[in-house]
Amino acid sequence: MSNFGVFFKYWAESDGIIIRAAPNFLPAQSKIEQGRWFWSYHIRIENSSDQNVQLLTRHWIITDGRANVTNVDGEGVVGEQPVIKPGGAHDYVSGCPLATPTGSMQGQFRMRREDGSYFLAQIPKFNLIAPASAK
Description:
The chain is mainly beta and about 140 residues long. The chain has one domain: Sandwich (Immunoglobulin-like), CATH 2.60.40. It is about 0% helix and about 60% strand. The chain has no helices and 11 strands. Strands 6, 7, 8, 10 and 11 form a 5-stranded antiparallel beta sheet that branches. A hairpin with a 2-residue loop joins strand 3 and strand 4.
């Protein structure tokens, strides 16, 4: 699916929330000779439920090409805890450095419905793969 010129190859659905992901390798931000590869990733959160939902926290599981795992937890996304109306969406872009030219990211957002109940929306696992010219 494409939105804003972005091809979202990865997606997952949880409790009426669809999360799409599109990673992009950034050679200009990478320092390959120093063992640092950098990706941006575009996340789109779509609300197909019948209630407003608010994104409260994030939990990321980042795995590099050597199977080293880093867990990242925090409030909201890029400084926001957006409320997403039924039929609405929230987009954001962030970044991830790795010490290897390949890896993956996955995780979950803790969400609250307007009725006060909580649930976890799964972030699909997506691959971070630098092009052969950047390895």
